[in-house]
Specification:
Layout (H helix, E strand, L loop, with lengths): L12 E7 L8 E7 L17 H14 L2 E7 L1 H7 L1 H14 L7 E5 L11 E4 L7 H22 L7 H4 L5 H10 L22
Parallel strand pairs: 1-4, 4-5
Antiparallel strand pairs: 1-2, 2-3
Length: about 200
């Protein structure tokens, strides 16, 4: 299925999406992308439906062809302060701030956003599988976040972050139970399913 080129009639429509919202460790990462009006690539899709190799090929394609793109990170400490919903929105707005071309309109993956610079916007459920710019943003957010998780996995190899990217896999939770939480874990999240098993902060 081919994704749509745009939602609005504006010339500089930005798509934005985040990665890492459901993780137990690491940052939430967001990207914003403005694609040319006539841009088309039938390989673009929701990042979750693509292999890691394909995502990296498409990342280069996106960065070389986008009118502008921006990527932002919000770390686990700020997530704990703001909660993940607010942190995700702030991260997407930070990514929009990094665009070198101001967007006329913004489309957002999901169903919740907050006003941004008086720019009109539209939330779109499963937008990363419907619109090219949101799909592009999902690919950038995912690849940049995966790079970060691979880097910190070298520091804490027992948690398997190079494979689970901080998501709540069985291996990840077993490591938390055995070794405790790290400086990268989100302490406001339920890191273990059994609340009677204390963590060693």
């Amino acid at each position: 299925m081919c994704l749509k080129t745009r939602y609005s009639q504006y010339d500089f429509e930005a798509g934005t999406d985040e990665a890492g919202r459901g993780c137990l460790a690491g940052p939430v990462t967001a990207a914003a992308v403005i694609l040319p009006r006539d841009y088309f690539n039938n390989q673009l899709n929701d990042s979750k439906k693509l292999s890691a190799k394909k995502r990296h090929v498409l990342r280069n394609e996106i960065e070389n062809n986008a009118i502008s793109f921006g990527v932002s990170f919000i770390d686990n400490y700020e997530i704990d302060l703001l909660n993940i919903a607010n942190a995700s929105i702030l991260c997407m707005q930070d990514a929009l701030d990094k665009l070198k071309v101001a967007p006329d309109f913004v489309i957002i993956d999901g169903n919740y956003f907050k006003p941004y610079r008086n720019i009109p916007y539209q939330t779109i459920v499963k937008g990363d599988a419907k619109f090219l710019s949101i799909a592009a943003a999902s690919i950038l957010a995912k690849t940049y976040r995966d790079e970060f998780m691979n880097q910190i996995a070298d520091k804490y190899p027992k948690y398997g972050w190079q494979k689970n990217m901080g998501y709540p896999t069985l291996q990840h939770r077993q490591a938390i139970r055995e070794f405790g939480a790290t400086e990268y874990h989100r302490k406001s999240f339920r890191l273990l399913p059994d609340p009677e098993l204390p963590l060693n902060w």
